[in-house]
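Board notes, transcribed. Complex of a protein with 6-phosphogluconic acid.
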Amino acid sequence: MKAGEGHEVRTLADLEALSRAAADFFVSLSLSAAASEKRFSVALSGGSTPQRLFSLLASSPCRESINWSSTHFFWADERCVPKESPESNYNLVYSMLLSRLPVPGDNIHRIRGEDGPERAARGYEDLLRSLFGQQPFPVFDLIVLGAGADGHTASIFPDSEVVRERTRLAVPVYANAPKPARVTLTLPVLNNAAQVLFLASGRAKAQVLHEILEDGNPKRYPAGLVKPVHGRLTWLIDRDAARLLAQPTFPRGRS
Ligand code: 6PG
């Protein structure tokens, strides 16, 4: 189903098929970057949905297909907890992916949640400016996002003032979010990416996806406000999450 210029929604049979499609997607973008001898910058999210993707990327054949030395890892958001915490998005990605791959330590650019929300957000913003240059917003090659049943994405929650942030790259998040405090990339950064890939699985997401992708009011939901200005937006969703969509599509040979 086409959801607009540069926007695509693909429905897969289940989380396994969705994760395999996401892994193919990741490999293909990383190969394009390698073909032009460019660094491949990717920002990842936490949550349960991307975990199978992380395992696939760390296993054959993906692990041999990707040039890990030119792949740079960032995070879309983080909880303000120590990096060893089971709540840490860095810890999730490190344990399922990075610890199993030859990624140089200099390519891992985490949000230092243990520094507390203000310092961690400033530190991350400084890091992004130093790596991407002084242009107003970095251009990530790929940002992988999830969507909550309440329509949040990264750590941008409905009715949070973060939705209105226009200048900062990363901000602390206290209100309207579950504890602990968090740090999140802002909407201008998400919307400046070359490619945003949303992953959504399960019946609990069906209503909000219907409202975001079809005739509801997408702007009520932070996930509905993600529309890259110059880049592409792709939603990979499974059949359960797509059950309230009018025209779920099942690409041949994939579902
Ligand atoms: C996090 C996220 C968050 C997540 C959504 C979806 O760290 O929790 O970055 O935005 O992507 O809550 O989570 P699920 O994949 O668990 O549904």
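The radius of gyration is 17 Å. The beta strands are 2-4, 7-12, 40-44, 71-75, 77-79, 142-146, 170-173, 182-185, 195-200, 232-238.
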